[in-house]
Amino acid sequence: MKVTNLVTAVLLLALSVLVLLGTWELPYWADFAPGSAFAAFWVALVGLVLALALLVSTLADDGREPHGFPDRRGVARVAALTAGLWLMVLLIPLLGFMTAAIAFSLFLLLGIERRPLVPSLFTTAVVSGLVYGVFIAWLGIALPAGPFGL
Amino acid sequence: MDALASLAQGFSVAMTPTNLLFVLIGVTLGQLIGALPGIGPSAGMALLLPVTFGLEPVTALVMLSGIMYGGMYGGTLTSVLVNVPGEAASVMTAVDGNQLARQGRAGQALAAAAIGSFLAGIGAVTALVFLTPALSAFALGFSSPEYFLLALLGITATASLGTGSAVKAMIGATLGLMIALVGTDPIQGTSRLTFGSLELLEGVDFLPVAIGVFGIAEILVSMEQTQASAAVRTRLRDMWLTRKDWVECRMAMLRGGVIGFVIGLMPGAGPTVAALLAYVVEKKASPHPEKFGHGALDGVAAAESANNSAAHGAMVPMLALGIPGSASTAVLLAALVLLGIRPGPMLLTEQADLVWGLIASMFIGNVILLIMNLPLAPLFASVLRIPYSYLVPGILIVSLVGAYAISLSLFNVGLTLFFGMVGYLMIRADIPRAPLVLAVVLAPLMESSLRQSLMLSEGSPAIFVQRPLSAVLALLVIGSLALPLFNFMLARRAARRAGVAEALSHSSD
What is the DSSP letter of B390? Predict the structure, then answer.
């Protein structure tokens, strides 16, 4: 947990600096009222203080609490799912939302979860039907369509 | 009496066929979402919020709130039968409930939880009926300093009353405030932290944050290992309490219900803290504390009464002040805003049918949930036999379609995935996610009230302590910040004393 806490503290420190630098050009105080950078300044300051508090308390702590990340296989499954989700989003403009979603569902069930083919196809059909029925037919939301009209 | 007349009017709104149907849909979804490990009521509400876009506001809210308190009932099933809490507030139920199931008393554990949740839920909604108008009338005297302090208290209390590290809870809240800063400054109209992106000019929507941080993140965690937990094979025919069981549980239900409601009223604490506290109090009050951890029926009754009561109690500050006290009520508040309704003390007078219809629907929803959790419990328990991996594609695809539906933009879908990854890293770094979501919801109110206050006082911070009410709120904020420090110092002192005692015992050896 010690390394995780140190990384968290450094990331928060970096984010706080980014907020400070990103609003540096904006006025802290306009003519008669707080300006656009007012809240940003104080939030960044709180972020800096909290990052330093976490950094100091972690360095002072001699506990051996294990980190909370999964083993290599778990990381691989999470990474595969995340990659699949991003790939689906990138494919939506090319294939359409429904087609990309069907491809993603099959990739998840057959590729990552290693489930049998028939239940996977059935699950994908149910999910697609649900999305089509609720979002397209009932709510009338125009999901991006691809070459197959879906 | 005014409250009772308004409640009668609320029943006429809630009893329309459409609203009754959506109460049923909401509590059924809540029951299922609560039962499924890996996705809690807040995530379920955020995922299903876009589905309510085509509904009347009151219909949408009765459905979403049904998911919120339905989740409290549903979490019991998984806790008792699988020993995996369906949602965080059922952690204490899993401890004793699963032990009871292994002793062949799953029916009694589920019945005690269902009856306790029902009685505490009805009690809490009754208190809600009388407390909400009173608090709302009181809050009409609030001005910008009070609103700023109240919103700030909502965030700082999350840190001091939460179950984990106060510093990490504050880090979660700070991240939420940073997210809320992105976009166009609401007062001066200048772009802030958009880094040239046109999509970010309107700011980051609440839903991609909530769906990502709660929904996607929880699915990513559940993907770390193959879900192979099996439900305890047990008889679910004895779904009722004997006279002896009732005598054992009735005071636990009462204590749990009262503790839950009071905790629910406090900003930041929520059903999980309520269930933990009720369990600890019950262990102290019980004539057989040795049974706790090994199958105490009164422990299950206390924890379940408390979490349902807290879920309803959290509605009081949300409806009366427009300040959410928990992650679920933050989603409900976001739903109000998305439906074009302005939350705050005027809500009760401007949208009386909506508020009273919602409150009346909770009485109806609790009755439906009692039926679902007594005679129909075996039916819902059978859902647990569906392998979780078959549910994952549906949850993820509905999440992403929902994110797209908010503004018909793929940018929001990407943002949802980004916040899903942020939420996953937060879970692994042990940073609570509820403060982040609460901060995103409360930040606009906080910033505008802070700047208006300083504008009125020409920059003097004394405005925050000039009026008695704002001074009290300022003291509460300071108290909520000091409490974790005080606890830290007490723990250090206790550790030092224990160290000295150990050294003395070693030296005497």
Answer: G
> Residue A19: which of B181, B187, B392 has the nearest Cβ?
B181
DSSP string, B296-355: -HHHHHHHHHHHHHHHHHTHHHHHHHS--SSHHHHHHHHHHHHTT---STTHHHHTHHHH
ipTM of model? 0.94
Residue B108's pLDDT is 87
Model confidence pLDDT, tens digit, residues A89-121: 999 999 999 999 999 999 999 999 999 999 999
Q: Report the gap between the CA of B118 and the closest CA in chain A (Å).
A: 31
| Per-residue pLDDT tens digits for B469-503 | 899 999 989 998 888 888 778 877 887 777 766 66
The DSSP 8-state label assigned to residue A144 in this structure reads P
Number of structural domains chain B divides into? 1
Report pTM: 0.85
A-proximal residues of B, 182-211, CB under 8 Å:
185, 187-188, 190, 192-193, 195
Taking CA atoms, what residue in A is nearest to B183?
A36
Q: Chain B closest CA to A147's CA: distance in Å?
A: 18
Structural domain of residue B403, as residue ranges?
Answer: 2-224+241-508
Domain membership of residue B485 (yes or no) is: yes
| Structural domain contains residue B233 | no
Q: Looking at the complex, does the CB of residue A112 fall below 8 Å from at least one CB of chain B? A: yes
Assigned token pair, A108: 């998840």
Option in A74, A123, A131 nearest B224 (CB): A74
pLDDT of residue B234: 59
B226 to chain A, closest Cα gap in Å: 8
Separation of CA A145 from chain center: 25
Residue B100 included in any domain: yes
Least Cα distance to B265 among B192, B117, B337, B161 occurs for B161
- Is B230 part of a structural domain of the chain? no
